[in-house]
Specification:
The chain is mostly helical. The protein has one domain (2-56). The chain is 63% helix and 0% strand. It is built from three helices and no strands. Helix 1 (2-19) packs antiparallel against helix 2 (25-39) and helix 1 (2-19) packs parallel to helix 3. The longest helix is centred in the first third of the chain and has 18 residues, at 2-19. The protein is globular, with a radius of gyration of 12 Å.
Length: 71
Amino acid sequence: MNRALLQTGVIHHLTMMKGLGLIDGDEAERLDALIDSVAKETIMWELVKMAREYWKGTTGMGAIDLKGDGA
């Protein structure tokens, strides 16, 4: 159970950081592949999918842009 919680926490935080605009470009693509790889091993895959949808936002750019550059 501890492993599942750690995996889910890391995945959620990385997804949230992408949604907030803190991670983008090539780094975001690399982390997407890592998230997919780890997420498929966790028993909380449904939670991971819900977090991704939430932080993706309606525009696909994230709910909030913390960088302030509008990108």
